[in-house]
Amino acid sequence: MSESKAQKRDLRFRLVDGLYLAMIVLPLLAAILLKIFTNLPTGAEGLSITGARVFVRIPFPLMDILITEAMVNAWLILITIIGACLFLAHGITVKGGGIRQIAAEWVVEKAEGIIRDNMEPVFHAGYTPFIMTILAISACSSLMSLIGVFPPTADVNIIAGWSILVFILITKNKLKAGVGSYAKGFLEPIPVMLPMNILGEVATPVSMTFRHFGNVLSGTVIASLVAWALGGLTSLLLGWLPGFLGDIPFFNVGIPAVLSVYFDIFSGCIQAYIFAMLTMLNISGAYPGDDVLAERAAKRQKRKAQIAN
Amino acid sequence: MEAIAVAIILGCCALGAGICMGIGAVGPGIGEGHAVANACEAIGRQPEAKGAVTSTMIMGCAISETTGIYALVIAILLIFVAPITMVNALKAFINPGA
Predict the structure, then answer these.
(1) Cβ pair A174, A166 in contact under 8 A
(2) Which residues contact A154 (CB under 8 A, 6 or more apart)?
(3) CA of A218: which chain B residue's CA is closest?
(4) Dihedral sign (CA B77, B78, B83, B89)
(5) In chain B, which residue's Cα lies nearest the Cα of A211?
(6) In angstroms, rounded to a whole number, what is the distance separating the alpha carbons of residues A27 and A44?
(7) Domains of chain B (ranges plus CATH)?
(8) Three-class DSSP category at A55
């Protein structure tokens, strides 16, 4: 009786495992299929570098809402990341389990270590999931170009969305010191600096966006330029081969992969790390400090006591 | 006449992209070279701190690369985006009705 129960539980465990694995793999397959079925040849020859393709255009009063390739790929990679997290966390026990639990614990410990090294103590508990989400989405989105689909990070709008989130968090932490002192911060060191300070505030998300976007974009552009040039070189040198052999771009095999190692793997991971690092440093730097907050709380209490009297 | 104007636009876009990338690459090049030289010196003096020095150097290099990346983005916009929009604007300016 108990044995069949255990068997049943084992079966259910495997079933859920399979579901999570499908959650990891199916979105990537869907992205590849989407690329294959929507990337119809236009007949245009030569090199063309365009942004993300627009799938659906929803009419909207102020501005049409576009559902682009980058957005769809970003949603698909989100499902993959959620599936990977659930897969790693599935079947965790207090006693300690197999390799999967060790891997999950290692990831969490590393994440908490990075946060502990770079942020103020107040942020340790609450900000780890946010920072790690940004790191994982950014890295996985950049690595998506390895399977041949449009990486969401090559679209400036996606990264601008993340940067605006970070900007909101920075402003929220600056406002902890009070609206008055936040506004006064723009007039320092002298009131003439007001436009410069506003510009500096806006420059943070803009520079974060363009740093990440420019790095991924440069990889995409240089890879397509090299592929195009190698195709031209092949037809120049090997174009005399008979029949269909002359149409095959032989030089395109393997040589662009060397560039891909740098631009797709190294640069993508480094940019994800830098984006997460800057997020941490900016949010941590916006925090006014424990003593300022304590002073403020004491002042408020004093005022309350005065009103009560 | 229109062909000359379009040619001027295309030529100026290409020239602008070249100048932008050429001058914009100087600063990050010098800065990153400086950073890497000092990191090598630090590793030579203190080989046991290699890991920390290397990770900090890569972080700093990526940040000092930012201005070069801005130049690159502007150069790419000048080559692939600006000519189309400017030629369209020119055509709309010449034939307002069409």
Answers:
(1) no
(2) A52, A70, A145, A213, A216, A217, A220
(3) B72
(4) positive
(5) B66
(6) 30
(7) 2-94 (1.20.20.10)
(8) strand
Task: Write the residue in B58, B62, B70 that is nearest to A210 by C-beta.
Answer: B70
Cross-strand pairs, A67 = A56
Residue whose token pair is 């959620």: A82
Cβ pair B66:A213 closer than 8 A: no
* Per-residue confidence (pLDDT) for residue A289, from 0 to 100: 80
A66 sits in which H/E element: strand A65-68
pLDDT tens for A190-247 read: 888 888 888 888 988 998 898 898 888 888 888 878 878 887 888 787 777 776 766 6
Pairing of strands A54-58, A65-68: antiparallel
Q: What is the DSSP letter of A98?
A: S
Q: Which chain A residues contact residue B66 at CB under 8 A?
A: 207, 210-211
CA distance A294 to chain B (A): 34
Measure CB to CB from residue A277 to each of B59, B72, B80 and give the nearest one.
B59
Amino acid at the residue B67: T
User: How long is chain A?
Assistant: 309
Highest average pLDDT, of A150-154, A225-229, B11-15, comes from B11-15
Minimal-distance CA residue of chain A relative to B55: A270
The most confident of A257-261, B1-5, B33-37, B65-69, by mean pLDDT: B33-37
